[in-house]
Amino acid sequence: MNQAEGVPSPAPARTGEIAFDRRAPGLVGIVVKGFLLSLITFSIYRFWYITNLRRFFWSRTVVAGSPAEYLGTGKELFLGFLVALAILVPIYILLFVIGLLSPILATLAAPISFIGLFVLGQYALFRGRRYRASRTRWRGIRLGQDGSGFAYAGLASLWWLGTIVSLGLAFPFMRAALERYRIDHTLVGQSRMRSTATGRSILMPWMMFYIVALLPILASVLALLAASGFDVPTDLLIQDPASEKSKLIFNPDYADTPLVYYAGAVGIAASVSIPLALLLIPYYRARETRTFLNAAHLGAARLNSSLKARQFYFPYLVYMLALIGFILVLGIILALLVPLIATNGENAGIHAFVIVSTVLLYLGAILGTNVLYVRIVSVRLWHAVATTMQIENLPALEAVLASTRAPASGLNEGLADALDVGGALEIGF
Amino acid sequence: MEAITTTGTFFDGISARPRSVTLRLTFRLDIVGEDVARDWSLLDLRAADAAAPLMRVNHAQGPESVEFADEAFAQALMARCPDLNRTEGGSGVTRLVLWSIAAGLSVLLTAIYGVPAASGLLAPLVPQAIEAQLGRSVDGQIVTLLDDPPLCNEAAGRAVLDRLTARLSEGMALPVAPQVSVRRHKIANALALPGGRVILLSDIIAKARNGDELAGILAHEFGHVAARDPMRSVITAGGTSFLLSLVLGDLTGSTVLVTVGQAAISAGYSRDAERAADAYAVAAVKRAGGDGAALAAILERITDADDEKPDGISFLRSHPFTAERAARIRSLAGEKPTGSGILSEAEWKSLQGLCPEPAKPEKAKPEKTRPNDGKSPTPTEKL
């Protein structure tokens, strides 16, 4: 961000830049304070921590010269969480009692509660987005979101069903359909945003991911199923009698059947494809983010993103290197502690010291990874998405009028927190 | 007062259109532009979060705001506006932290003291049918955990066991008639389950030297049944793990903390239950005419010496140390009675034959698996 951009020139600019200062001074303090206070307050402080993080990221994102404002408060989030808890606790207790009383129902309870919580999670995601939108202000204009959380949850569930039935081929179409629903119900003041995202536009990156990462596993599993007449023996993998019970080996009884080849193929496909899949996820996400941003517009004003896939790889690479360095430092500290334990285990003082320092080391490790993650991954991803974005035809955006709609209530996001879906910061719209 | 000026942008809060203005700071803030003229009191200015040098100032009443990028002007504004960084409602982090700690501690204390106490009151209220149903499903889980050991049902031994059960439970105020089942297993142990179910593992019969020792074991489990300990531990386990995950819920690594914490709480509580069951067993065996101290002898025999060293995880033990238990049992039992014991020599022989060795040797099973080693919350009362 440079100073000249801070104030728009009197002549109305045609394009608006989005700036974000990657150095992010003051962020580490927020993370450290948030983590430590969450620790001693039994994690109740996390709502205020999330609020502080969002205030930081919002206010450092300068859109066409004006910073965004986050108006949410920790108290709203906390109250929303309490209300969501009051809804969820009876459900959890009911599931617990059913599981205890009836083994037959207990086996059914797991899938049923998984599906129920999935649908509820989608609902919570949409409502959480409504809260965040209504707490976002730019140049005095509030954003907003209408639409129904239930409709979104229904849409998402049907699309997921379709995706599973089509063995993953419908995935990009699902993503586009949900993106359209989200963006079409996003308002800037009185003006409604529109998205022209299509599944076809992200079909190529998805197919690349699909062919490399998913297809080998799917094909080999299908082959295994076909070879066994869609009736895989449940004892195909047994516990290794020679060693500890947790280790699974291939049942020697099936050594002479063709199943062994297919099962081997599944193993090989999985061991090659899963690492490849992990490597390709940032690529797909970057492509999807760029395509969806380019498809969003507000009247004549359009977003234009030139996001590169490498900008999504680089943060993770730096994060991994930082993490390795951090683990090395921790390892050295641990190596200094170990002789203490070995030489003088009887002494009560040393014993207490070792326990205390282990706990401190554990907490320090979590704090360190948190700081590194926010500082490197969150900041860099946010920076990459923000600074590669431009607003074309800015005057159309500047013409929007504020809305008189009341802002959404803080209860909207409580469910999302209670269900642990959606993060404090979501990259992209 | 010295006047400072800078250029900035004015927003009316109705539209997003920027208007260039000149800001002039005296004892008020003058905003003058092409079609704008404002004269704001310094008390009404509220700063929004923004990275220096950019500054955004909202008017406290109404939607209007100005933005500028001038560090010197921002400094002067901060010096002259008392309420610039005031947030409505106040933040009060200290108060928040103290209240949160108080709330968390209250939940923790409820988990440690309240839930075990409540479970003692609630357990007798659980309808018999539900407890029996629960016992059935727990029985199934335990059998699966133990790798499906076969039941032992040699008729002669079974008859002796039934007689022994009847004699021991005669003077006891048991809520239900106990159902004792014996399964062949290489671990010397016995378990009490909800609904009056008791499982004896065959190795404990093999390790017992006389009828009084086995009677002691059996009476100990009946002691748990009488105190409704299995049902209480179900309620306690569910309640404490729920409360603990509530207060520790979202911290990283919390599952470990919840498991350890729950084990510590239920173990501390079950050590008391064990001592009570021991005393109960001594009394019952004496009443039936046996040697109450025999329980101490078999406990010492089946205890793994390595398990008995006090160490960092002693607080996780569900049972008191055997030496301590044996001493207490001996002091309670007093003098050895003169009789031959509860079972005659012949009865004891046929009871030992309850679990004959299988005709062909079983496949080598993993030797040292200790099922249900305090890790899973399966509601049982072990020996």
TrEMBL record, chain A:
The keyword Membrane applies. Keywords: Membrane, Transmembrane, Transmembrane helix. Pfam families: DUF898. The chain crosses the membrane at residues 27-48, 77-101, 108-126, 202-227, 259-281, 316-342, 348-373. It comes from the Bacteria. This is YjgN family protein. The lineage of its organism: Bacteria, Pseudomonadati, Pseudomonadota, Alphaproteobacteria, Hyphomicrobiales.
